[in-house]
Amino acid sequence: MTAKADSWLRCVHCGADYDISDSRYLCTCGGTLDVKRNLSKLDGKELVATWERRWGAKNGVDASGVWRYRELILDIAEDKIVTKREGNTRLYHAGLAAEYAGAKHLLLKHEGENPTGSFKDRGMTCGMTAAMLRGASSVACASTGNTSASMAAYAATVGIPAVIFIPSGKIAYGKLAQALAYGGVTLQIDGNFDDAMALVQDVCAKMGVYLLNSVNPFRIEGQKAIGFEILQQLDWEVPDWFVIPGGNLGNNSALSKGLKELYELGIIDKIPRIAVIQADGANPLYKMWRNKTSYEPVPNPETIATAIKIGNPVSWEKSLRGIEWSDGVVEQVSEQEIMDAKAMVDRAGIGAEPASCCSVAGVRKLVEAGVINPDATIVGILTGNILKDPDAVVGYHKDTLRDIGIEGRFANSPVSIKPTLEEVEKALEGINS
Ligand code: F0G
User: Fold this and answer.
1) pLDDT at 23
2) Containing domain of residue 25, as a range?
């Protein structure tokens, strides 16, 4: 590594340094890598002024909700950036979902409004840019669905093959449809996400394919922009809490890394607390944090929130570091809690896929437990679009999920009628009262 480099790679586990242009994803010790940056050359006030100037740009890289913050993303010539103008997603007042959660000031950042319908596009624009810089001729990922949809779309943009490893029969239909439609080479493996993740790392090492899972440190760099954009939307007023779902644990690792950089640059003067929410059937981080034990994967993860059906998350070490830095917490929520919270997010007119709604389920649980004050300012992150998983939505509203232990408590079932005025009148009785 060159001693004066402005950015470099550092192992989260053992602290070994590597050159930023090194194509490795893991340290020789097996630890994950961070992009480190020499922040002393940057001025926080100037950065904020630059980012404010770029806000609302119509064209070019400034119009991306990731590359607007490029000084903290990746140092690269603008014409080398692969972007779909990702980000620029809305921050909603949670309405009914806030009432349900018992939180007076709950905002929801809807990352399902990204180009391919999930937060993954923020990491992918940066990952794909890094791939092209390294001369990659094909890319690969293991996925529970959203990463693969995103990667396939970005690969299609630059015209290189996307190789996708997904657990057979276990990903939401909308996501599978996207992977196929964008032209991804889709390999359904007889195993779960964790098996797919182990396999893809092997394949990439042996076949010279560039790996675009969030173990790739450049994915994390792009992902940090969620936090930057939220704070810019809040005029740099720091909320008390960020609440975010946890699966492979890249997103919350990125959130805390980005916030820490803003803090070190003096752009924010308060450290928000981060709550990571896992499904109780796929909860390795929760178990470790709660019981203060060492990391143990969960062997057979299970949840209706298939996006986070992960037992052996690659970024657990980075995640834990960020939770500790922010005096954060980890919580788990049940299947029923996830789907009831989802019904409320949807009913509020916002809508998101099941995994996303762990945020609201988590806020409710943490307010009830007295961990989050009902008066606190909270930003919940909704990670994926409502249309990603229509089966889960219709199953809940038709109340056909009882065999997997989920009741349609807030079901809005379709009503079948004959096409007559009388039947309509009967069905709509009291509608205007
Ligand atoms: N929410 C959604 C909708 C997701 O797709 C994922 C992850 C998460 C939350 C969890 O984020 O992994 O950074 O902790 N989906 C990955 C995928 C694993 O393959 O699409 P995380």
Assistant:
1) 85
2) 1-41
